[in-house]
What we know:
By secondary structure, this protein is α+β, with helices and mostly antiparallel strands. Among the domains are: 1-145, Beta Polymerase, domain 2 (2-Layer Sandwich); 288-338, no CATH class; 348-394, no CATH class. Helix content is 51%, strand content 10%. The protein is built from 21 helices and nine strands. It has helices at residues 11-23, 32-39, 54-63, 111-116, 139-145, 154-160, 164-175, 182-190, 200-212, 216-226, 229-232, 239-247, 254-261, 266-272, 277-286, 298-305, 310-324, 329-338, 348-353, 361-375, 382-394, and strands at 28-30, 47-50, 67-72, 77-82, 85-91, 93-98, 103-107, 126-127, 133-134. Strand 4 and strand 5 (85-91) form a beta hairpin. The termini are far apart. The mean pLDDT is 93. It comes from Acetobacter oryzifermentans. Residues 27-149 form the Poly A polymerase head domain. Its cofactor is Mg(2+). This is Poly(A) polymerase.
Amino acid sequence: MTRTLLHRLAPARLHALEQIWAVLPEARLVGGVVRDLMVGRAIADVDLAVPQPPEEVMQGLKAQGITVVPTGLAHGTVTAVIDSAPYEITTLRRDVETDGRHAVVCWTDNWQEDAARRDFTINAMSCDSTGAVHDYFGGQQDLAEGTVRFVGDVTLRIQEDALRILRFFRFWGRYGQGRADAQAMQAITAQAALLNGLSVERVWSELKRILAGPKAQDVVYLMQQAGILPVLLPEGANVPLFARLMAFNPPADALLRLAALVPNKSADMARRLKFSRAEAARLKAMQAEPVPLPKMSDAQLRHLLADTPPDILAARSWLHQARYSDVLGEELRQRLAQLEIPVFPIAGRDLLEAGCQPGPHVGQVLKDVRNWWQQGGCSADKQACLAYALELVKALP
């Protein structure tokens, strides 16, 4: 591999790397950036590794006027900031001890030792300043063939960190082709119970990325085949409903897809996986009533839009389409998107300015007017709403 690989980087990033290499000539790009450069995918983060200890790395960068932040000294990581962009630089490591969730590491100057502690062969490659790729475990061939394969002993890799089970499925969804690696599937099935030892926050973080990622349906089938769905989702997974949703090509919305995969006891799941309040509320709203239907008039849809955000109504439509194979679902969502979100045109101060006496009856009058406004398709303007409100006030005992 020639320096052409590096030229696939944006010029600003390449310029920043050249500044780092001027200080740390032995530094190499590692992990995802190498993998994605090789397949021509967009680059998210640019991470590097070096044989020097972190204190020496910081000292050298600072001496050249490069801003550096000690983001994870205990793990050997510092972050160089160049033109406001971060570049994580980590000292080569080897594992001393692991417990399935955390690892005790020590520094090393051996690149292969560092690569050996990574999860998959496609993530274990490194690229130096000349553009040469260093591949100790056949990652280039696996990437070309669409094989997601663990580095070294599969069972040991999983025992070191059980989250690698979920990472296997996430990476297979993005880079895998054909049948999944048989050794990996066997080891995952045998050690599925290790998922119970992970923090639920880590589990949900990975599950979110799986559901929103490519080939989500194939990945869920693969997880079902490996026997991890009952461990991952003890509330019960409705794979057929999920498959019907995916057949309609829904948006890459993890919560929407999860609402189909776990249609029952989703509140229990949200509590167990410690969803944020916003996530839990959104999931609950997606599965609530009323559901917009294709047979509804624009006035009826405006009625719904007055109370419920359009994205939630669209999500309810997707789930209804999955349950009943409603072929008009897409047409309905287009109608929803074209409708203006109605805003109730009056407030309590408007009634007071119109001569209504203050008191608890004002709130009830507003509620009654709003209901009348909605029943009429949210088309009445401010003047009409005020007129109706004053009629109600006059009728008060």
